[in-house]
# Entry
Amino acid sequence: MQRTIAKDLLKIHAVFFRPDEPFTWASGIKSPVYCDNRLTLTAPEVRLDVEQGLAKLIQENYPEAQVLMGTSTAGIAHAAITAHLLGLPMGYVRSGAKDHGRQNQIEGKLEPGQKVVVVEDLISTGGSVIEVVNVLREAGAEVLGIVSIFTYGMQKGLDRLAAANVKNISLTNFDVIAQVAAEEGYIQPADIARLIAFRNNPSDESWAKN
# Structure
């Protein structure tokens, strides 16, 4: 599954490697990779692979799941489609409470004690998804874990997930996509080491000078 999803994401440029002409993040850090998993929603064949893959991850890793909760906004559609495949309720967690109406931050019905799986599209440093986990826990939910389409495997993200005592299972990861990208001719085999160096320490831009 990891290689299939990797090929899918590369094919539609949801994950796009450009080590010789790096992108610049808002923080100013240079990055050899661009990731926009929202593109999977407009590619029906890829979308089917992704949603069926997420459903399988949930069945295998969180069989007790009672509700799926998407992250706002990128995880909402994936949570909805996956919940439909599994016949489960779904909702989503806003980045902040609404300033009107019932001032909800959690949208959809959630009962205290319900077993929840969070659906995320991408995990890098893990900050935003852990905020969602915390909101759900504060509401009385039992968060079984997270499923996501892609994870960088950055140490900061791994440390944050461990500190929050929550596990993430991804359809594919940075290492697999880099390997498949080299095999499929998107990048040169020698670029793999540069990409891994970026992933291991994004603030060190020495990889870009290779």
